[in-house]
TrEMBL record:
Compositional bias ranges of the Polar residues kind: 115-127
The entry's keywords: Aminopeptidase, Hydrolase, Protease
GO CC annotations, alphabetized: nucleolus
GO MF: metalloaminopeptidase activity; zinc ion binding
The organism's taxonomic lineage, starting at the top: Eukaryota, Metazoa, Chordata, Craniata, Vertebrata
Domain of life from the UniProt record: Eukaryota
Organism: Stercorarius parasiticus
Short name of any one Pfam family annotated for the protein: Peptidase_M1
Alphabetized InterPro entries for the sequence: Aminopeptidase_N-like_N_sf, AOPep, Peptidase_M1_dom, Peptidase_M4/M1_CTD_sf
Name of the protein described by the UniProt record: AMPO Aminopeptidase
Length: 715
């Protein structure tokens, strides 16, 4: 059912038909096996009807509570069980706490050997007509399409959420007319009520999500696994409204799957982690990858004793022993995020502890803001995102300059992390808070990942991966990289790009804010020293951008490659990430650098103080949402109407910076001014000395005599 893609275009297909059905919550229940290099288990997905079908439901709506009492109470004769250490957590009083939503610790009795063969198909993006299956059916059956790659899908079934004990409370408003479909529609109504619970009932919501995930199945669903997608149907179901809104999938990853990497850490012990693959997480679990599919998740991961499971989760998980040699780790997230931001790392990590005499000051630090910032924060109380337990509405969170943090590393790097990393994290977190305000996430783990990690860092919700390369030398490299990844908390995570081709909205902002954060983290620096550092970095970045532009394809240098079509989706919701699979693109920094220079130019034109005020306003207005370039630019220019009169418009910024290749004209003119910076001249002089000295040594081939030695300055 997939149409052919042109493999020469190197575009990444996003296959999921999110306009028809939209995933709202995932529950993963996984086992990690290092011997076979496979992650195996179950994922349960909870859906809402997509935007194109939400208003045109095919089912009538009249009362059905009495039928629920008769039909479902018999099927729910056994309550939902949770093997937890605190048995009272799942008593009849139903306490909704972290323990009540932990994973089941029993072996699943379902067939995990698979009972059908997957059918490999050509990769492609389904058009709207491909979302229905007419083969062997008189009528068109609706097809649910998920993003999936390099996975062995074993079984798919509908989940009988109506069989969960106590679920009756979610059926009070259900109204149905077609008696033959009452139970099917009732299940979907239960899921709808569950996924739309108010934010203040999030613990109850997680509890019932877990109960529903363990409910019995009520019929297998035919599926077909293609190169890029998993297609699921139910015979006779022709609309997304009637399609099951809770499905369970048995699957396992493949050792060669591209979403995770199996390797050894620096101490020679096995580990596995998500390394920021171009195909994101579709080779880790079946999902909806388009950014619009904002969802929450819970995950229980079982692994052998001695391993530590770190994950993008709001809680600092504590392991629970299930049986001899097997431990389970549980994490959850209540802020809806794209599935691509889900991150996991399993290894023999060691926690780097804060020395006891300083541990008391590492977290919950309150910070007094300047009056202008404090007043601004009190005014902006209404959030524009979908409802979730938002920290921007929590008075205590709004005053928390340093969130709780932990550091993990292989055993051999613990001492270096204690010396370098532990002292920098609170400084950088506080500097970020001073600049942008409320931390969107409640905690932070920092992990030094294995040496095969191809980047200096990667940020995900509640966790940052750092390369071991940032640890040697002084604090500058480690501090600036930490600031960059912390900046992604706001730009890239709390505020995401609606179209992934606009990477500059994440990387450009993080690169620009990296300098602001690091300057404030170094509290002893004077204004001139800060300016000197920033102009030196601007010159170095300019040279990197100039070299990259000279040695790369023009089409890869455009920050908004889809131009006026940016953000557009097909009728089904499927789309592509232009050049998302192009090999050269993985090593390019044009989105970092051109984005950084655009923001730097705007700050220079508007004035840094006014500019940072606008950034804080943008964060408060758009956190928890997806944006396009024009959302930021329009708001910025509305805050500075005088700039429109001088010719600075959204259209001119598109033309000069975002929609064209090469070096923007305004940047060429500005680059000449950086050479006049005193620090730049000083560094240039020292570099010249090193080059000349090295050339003399090479020519003479002899060790220099004492009187010929050159004195180098420490810069």
């Amino acid at each position: 059912m997939e149409t052919q893609l042109d493999p020469m275009k190197d575009d990444l297909p996003l296959m999921a038909n999110t306009s028809h059905m939209l995933v709202k919550h995932y529950i993963l229940d996984l086992d990690v096996d290092f011997k076979s290099k496979v992650i195996e288990g179950i994922i349960v997905l909870f859906f809402e009807t997509g935007s194109r079908y939400r208003k045109s439901s095919s089912t009538g709506k009249e009362g059905c509570q009495s039928q629920f009492d008769e039909t479902c109470k018999m099927r729910a004769s056994e309550p939902c069980h949770f093997p937890v250490t605190n048995v009272s957590a799942c008593s009849s009083k139903t306490e909704y706490n972290d323990f009540a939503v932990c994973s089941k610790g029993e072996e699943d009795t379902s067939d995990k050997n698979g009972n059908r063969s997957n059918t490999e198909q050509a990769s492609g993006i389904p058009s709207s007509k491909n979302c229905y299956d007419v083969e062997n059916h008189g009528n068109k059956d609706f097809l649910l399409v998920l993003d999936c790659c390099d996975l062995s899908v074993l079984k798919v079934e509908e989940v009988d959420v109506a069989a969960v004990s106590g679920i009756e409370k979610f059926t009070k408003s259900a109204k149905l007319t077609d008696v033959s479909k009452d139970l099917e529609n009732l299940r979907n109504q239960i899921v709808h009520e569950l996924v739309t619970l108010p934010a203040d009932r999030w613990k109850e919501q997680l509890y019932y999500f877990t109960c529903c995930s363990q409910a019995p199945g009520c019929g297998e669903l035919p599926f077909t696994a293609g190169t890029w997608s998993l297609e699921i149907r139910k015979s006779g179901i022709q609309t997304p409204t009637d399609f099951p809104h809770a499905i369970r999938i048995w699957y396992k990853t493949k050792p060669e799957g591209r979403s995770v990497t199996w390797t050894m850490d620096q101490s020679g012990r096995p580990c596995v982690y998500t390394m920021g693959s171009p195909i994101n997480n579709r080779a880790l679990f079946p999902c909806q990858e388009p950014p619009i599919a904002l969802s929450t998740w819970q995950a229980s991961v079982r692994t052998a004793a001695g391993f530590v499971v770190l994950m993008s989760g709001e809680n600092s998980a504590e392991p629970v022993q299930l049986r001899e040699g097997i431990w389970s780790w549980y994490y959850y997230v209540t802020m809806p995020m794209p599935a691509s931001t889900f991150t996991i790392a399993v290894g023999c990590w060691q926690e780097v502890k804060q020395p006891s005499f300083t541990a008391s000051i590492q977290t919950n630090t309150e910070f007094s803001l300047p009056p202008s910032q404090a007043d601004f924060r009190l005014v902006e109380e209404i959030c524009g995102h979908v409802e979730y337990p938002c920290r921007f509405q929590n008075p205590a969170a709004r005053l928390q300059a340093v969130i709780p943090y932990r550091v993990f590393a292989p055993w051999c790097l613990m001492e270096r992390c204690e010396e370098r990393l532990l002292q920098l994290i609170p400084q950088c977190l506080s500097a970020a808070y001073t600049t942008l305000g409320t931390h969107p996430f409640s905690r932070l783990d920092v992990l030094i990942v294995p040496s095969n990690f191809s980047s200096l860092g990667m940020a995900s919700p509640h966790i940052i991966f750092l390369s071991q390369s940032v640890l040697p030398g002084g604090s500058h490299l480690c501090g600036t990289r930490l600031c960059h990844e912390i900046a992604h908390t706001w730009f890239g995570l709390a505020i995401g790009a609606r179209d992934w081709t606009e990477e500059w909205l994440s990387e450009g902002f993080a690169t620009f804010l990296e300098d602001i954060f690091w300057a404030r983290a170094q509290q002893q620096l004077s204004h001139d020293e800060v300016k000197g550092q920033q102009e030196l970095k601007a010159l170095l970045r300019w040279r990197r951008l100039r070299d990259e532009v000279q040695n790369s394809e023009e089409e890869l240098q455009v920050l908004r490659p889809k131009k006026e079509s940016t953000g557009e989706l097909s009728e089904s919701g499927a789309s592509i990430v232009k050049y998302g699979l192009k090999a050269e693109k993985m090593f390019m920094q044009v989105h970092y650098l051109k984005g950084y220079f655009l923001l730097r130019s705007l700050a220079r034109i508007i004035g840094e103080a006014s500019y940072l005020t606008s950034l804080r306003k943008f964060v408060h207005k758009f956190h928890g949402q997806l944006v396009l370039s024009q959302d930021f630019l329009c708001m910025l220019l509305e805050d500075t109407p005088e700039q429109k009169q001088s010719g600075l418009t959204v259209e001119s910024i598109f033309q000069n910076w975002l929609d064209t290749s090469g070096i923007p004209k305004p940047l060429v003119e500005e680059s000449e001014t950086w050479k006049e910076c005193q620090l730049v001249q000083q560094v240039s002089g020292e570099v010249t000395k090193w080059i000349q000295t090295n050339q003399r040594i090479r020519k003479s081939g002899k060790k220099k005599r004492k009187q010929d030695e050159v004195v180098f300055q420490k810069v």
